[in-house]
């Protein structure tokens, strides 16, 4: 139908050019150049305001003020295709449309009355940073509307480094959130986002307790000195206690972090017991 309407328009234009005197053809050529220039400035998804000029069986022509009428196909009149164009539009009606396809060389413009998505799936790339509003919150993450067909999900593990608790306690519906695309599947229509990916990785904190483990205490140094200076002496229990210090070093670190008894204290008690024996 679009081709038929275009062919009719071209034939009428050709007939008008043949009947008009040659001096009048110059303004028409200049107008065509202006129209082509205006069409080149249009991009898909651009919003335009216009007036319904003529209704056809397969769609309608709309004057959007660029020198040539835009055509909207019946399938582009809404999410549900109407039975007749006249069920939705009437001549002289003011409408809002969006650029669907544009051909400056042929002087043609197709528009749609269906508001386009802010982001198509083929426009989304891994590593892209998007901003949107939270539309849903679950214990396992939050869903953010970034203008795509479906909201993107930020899993609870991707909300922050070391995030603890429930997102419900931290975020609110309607809150703006900026996140980085870490995975996208146009086939499954899934979009995974991460706030954590935009944050600097936490620096490895120096573990002072671990450093202390590598430095023997004054008591340990004195006992080792005594062992070295007393070659004939035999202190098997004391030697085992000192040797066991290195073997239990890793367990001692974990014990400190988890609130378990300090291994060093146990070793000192063993040293005291061996001395008393």
Automatic annotation (TrEMBL):
Residues 7-31, 239-277 are annotated as: Disordered. Residues 268-277 have a biased composition (Polar residues). One of its GO terms (molecular function) is mRNA binding. InterPro entries: NA-bd_OB-fold, Ribos_protein_bS1-like, S1_domain. Residues 45-114, 127-196 form the S1 motif domain. SMART domains: S1 (SM00316). It comes from the Bacteria. Pfam families: S1. Residues 246-261 have a biased composition (Basic residues). GO terms for biological process: translation. Binds mRNA; thus facilitating recognition of the initiation point. It is needed to translate mRNA with a short Shine-Dalgarno (SD) purine-rich sequence. This is S1 motif domain-containing protein. It comes from Candidatus Thermofonsia Clade 1 bacterium.
């Amino acid at each position: 139908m679009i081709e038929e309407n275009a062919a009719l328009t071209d034939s009428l234009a050709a007939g008008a050019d043949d009947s008009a005197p040659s001096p009048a053809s110059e303004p028409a050529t200049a107008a065509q150049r202006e129209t082509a220039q205006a069409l080149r400035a249009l991009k898909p998804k651009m919003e335009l305001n216009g007036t319904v000029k003529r209704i056809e069986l397969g769609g309608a022509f709309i004057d959007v003020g660029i020198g040539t009428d835009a055509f909207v196909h019946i399938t582009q009149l809404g999410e549900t295709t109407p039975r007749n164009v006249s069920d939705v539009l009437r001549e002289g009606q003011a409408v809002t449309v969006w650029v669907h396809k544009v051909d400056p060389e042929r002087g043609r413009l197709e528009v749609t009355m269906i508001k386009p998505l802010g982001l198509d799936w083929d426009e989304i790339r891994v590593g892209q940073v998007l901003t949107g509003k939270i539309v849903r919150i679950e214990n396992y993450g939050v869903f953010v509307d970034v203008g795509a067909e479906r909201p993107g999900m930020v899993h609870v593990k991707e909300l922050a480094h070391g995030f603890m608790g429930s997102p419900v306690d931290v975020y609110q519906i309607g809150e703006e959130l900026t996140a980085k695309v870490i995975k996208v599947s146009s086939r499954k229509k899934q979009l995974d986002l991460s706030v954590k990916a935009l944050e600097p990785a936490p620096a490895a904190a120096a573990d002072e307790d671990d450093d202390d483990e590598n430095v023997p205490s004054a008591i340990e140094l004195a006992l080792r000195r005594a062992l070295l200076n007393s070659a004939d002496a035999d202190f098997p229990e004391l030697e085992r206690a000192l040797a066991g210090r290195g073997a239990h070093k890793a367990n001692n670190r974990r014990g400190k972090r988890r609130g378990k008894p300090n291994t060093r204290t146990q070793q000192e008690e063993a040293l005291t017991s061996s001395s008393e024996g």
